[in-house]
């Protein structure tokens, strides 16, 4: 059978763009369908705007704390409209890379509209029907807005519209203590808003190593953020210009009143309206597309990648999965995903970065050998910059190889790739002893960890022998 395209990609977010550009560059005839904006959530409502916003917010805190560095400074005014204009300017600067024009210049046929599968090779977009040998589902995810009593009757924010604010909230109430809620909550607090974060969990950073939560909770409390953990959301109601959130905490009912409400209770895959049932594509109970390690669905010629598949909803994972899909569709290599060294960073101040297994995960899988912890305040560069809050924790397997790492610090997201490389290359924890680090840098913390591992490996008789040699 002759098809219109070699590949049809549904969704022009991070994953879909990589598949479309990569396949077209290799000579495939590609159609890219997008019903909203090119670039998806990452460019328009996620990674790019949030990091541009956080730069301004964290700078505000640094200015207020400049006295620690011998500088006298104050902030006369925070103009949120100006901050959001800067955010939009950053999006505009990056936008051309993800634009329709660029992809059409690569030979991709960009189609605007809702793509609906009619069968495993046929897609309808408006009145147009197109066919393809292979189809890639890359429709991403969107904020979860659960059924909470009264929520639909108030005006609330999500990551999709919070960057449209022009007036700084007096009191921002946040439902959800995940990465988005924590990053934006701390950011608005640094700009001067009162912030309350409500979450049902017993602690923050539940997916990270156990040492992270208590440390970061202390940071947030010292920032002046009101944490309402172990709380159940009962109701949301409007009171004049304010919003009241009713929670149950410790067996008692509390009311929190704010002028803005951010709903940050997780994300769900965008799989509705795609006609997946007609193509007989299997979904999980939560609506994620079921894929194998080759990122194929239960229908051999249909693949999926990015947030719509889970289990890691990160832009860098979308790009990684897209690469697997390209290799399997174009070259039939049978490439499989490897999630043993997945990094993630929460862009709070300080940042929390992680890769590989946590100590709990390693123990559950019977892989745990040893944990090495080095406080950040032992590092000279951290002392010079007053970046003292944080630590490096290496998780070693039973043979001494690095299988996981957590790093907390101002530059954690930039430095964690040292651990990612070690995990991918199956290196031992002493590997950093052979590296020459520029002095002073915070990356030296990895060398300190290697030295600690080496010292821990010495037997009593070896220590005694070394002492005898030096005494002679």
Please describe what this structure looks like.
With 472 residues, the protein is of the alpha/beta class. The chain has three domains: 5-38 and 99-143 and 268-330, 3-Layer(bba) Sandwich (FAD/NAD(P)-binding domain); 151-265, FAD/NAD(P)-binding domain, CATH 3.50.50.60; 343-460, FAD/NAD-linked reductase, C-terminal dimerisation domain (Enolase-like, domain 1, 2-Layer Sandwich). Helices cover 31% and strands 25% of the residues. It contains 14 helices and 21 strands. The strands form five sheets. Strands 1, 2, 3, 4, 5, 6 and 16 form a seven-stranded mixed β-sheet that branches. Strands 17-18-21-20-19 form a five-stranded antiparallel β-sheet. Strand 5 (122-125) and strand 6 (128-137) form a beta hairpin. Helix 1 (14-25) packs parallel to helix 8 (315-330), helix 3 (47-64) crosses helix 4 and helix 3 (47-64) runs parallel beside helix 6.
């Amino acid at each position: 059978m002759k098809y219109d395209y070699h590949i049809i990609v549904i969704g022009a977010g991070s994953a879909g763009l990589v598949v479309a550009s990569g396949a077209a560059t290799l000579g495939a005839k590609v159609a890219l369908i997008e019903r909203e904006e090119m670039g998806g959530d990452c460019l328009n409502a996620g990674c790019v705007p949030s990091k541009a916003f956080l730069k301004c917010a964290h700078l505000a805190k640094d200015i207020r704390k400049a006295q620690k560095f011998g500088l006298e400074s104050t902030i006369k005014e925070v103009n949120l409209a100006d901050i959001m204009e800067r955010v939009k300017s950053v999006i505009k600067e990056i936008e051309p890379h993800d634009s329709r024009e660029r992809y059409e210049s690569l030979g991709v046929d960009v189609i605007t509209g809702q793509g609906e599968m009619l069968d495993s090779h046929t897609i309808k977009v408006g009145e147009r029907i197109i066919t393809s040998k292979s189809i890639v589902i890359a429709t991403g995810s969107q904020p979860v807005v659960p059924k909470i009593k009264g929520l639909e009757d108030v005006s609330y924010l999500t990551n999709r519209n919070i960057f449209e604010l022009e007036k700084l909230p007096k009191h921002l109430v946040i439902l959800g203590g995940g990465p988005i809620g924590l990053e934006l909550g701390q950011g608005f607090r640094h700009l001067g808003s009162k912030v309350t974060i409500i979450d049902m969990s017993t602690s923050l950073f539940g997916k990270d190593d156990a040492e992270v939560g208590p440390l970061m909770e202390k940071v947030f409390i010292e920032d002046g953020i009101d944490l309402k953990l172990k709380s159940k959301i009962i109701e949301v109601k409007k009171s004049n210009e304010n919003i009241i959130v009713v929670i149950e905490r410790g067996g008692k009912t509390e009311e929190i009143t704010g002028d803005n409400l951010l709903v940050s209770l997780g994300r769900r895959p965008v799989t509705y309206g795609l006609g997946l049932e007609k193509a007989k594509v299997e979904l999980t109970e939560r609506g994620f597309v079921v894929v194998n390690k080759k990122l194929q669905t239960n229908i051999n010629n249909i693949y999926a990648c990015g947030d719509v598949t889970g289990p890691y909803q990160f832009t860098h994972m979308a790009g990684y999965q897209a690469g697997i899909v390209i290799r399997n569709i174009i070259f039939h290599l049978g490439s499989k995903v490897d999630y043993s060294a997945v990094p993630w960073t929460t862009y709070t101040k300080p940042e929390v970065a992680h890769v590989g297994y946590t100590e709990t995960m390693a123990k559950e899988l019977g892989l745990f050998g040893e944990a090495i912890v080095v406080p950040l305040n032992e590092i000279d560069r951290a002392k010079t910059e007053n970046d003292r809050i944080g630590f490096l924790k290496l998780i070693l397997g039973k043979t001494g190889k690095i299988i996981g790492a957590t790093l907390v610090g101002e530059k954690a997201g930039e430095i964690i790739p040292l651990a990612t490389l070690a995990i991918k290359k199956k290196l031992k924890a002493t590997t950093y002893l052979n590296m020459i680090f520029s002095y002073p840098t915070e990356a030296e913390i990895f060398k300190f960890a290697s030295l600690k591992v080496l010292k821990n490996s010495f037997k009593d008789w070896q220590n005694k022998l070394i002492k005898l040699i030096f005494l002679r």
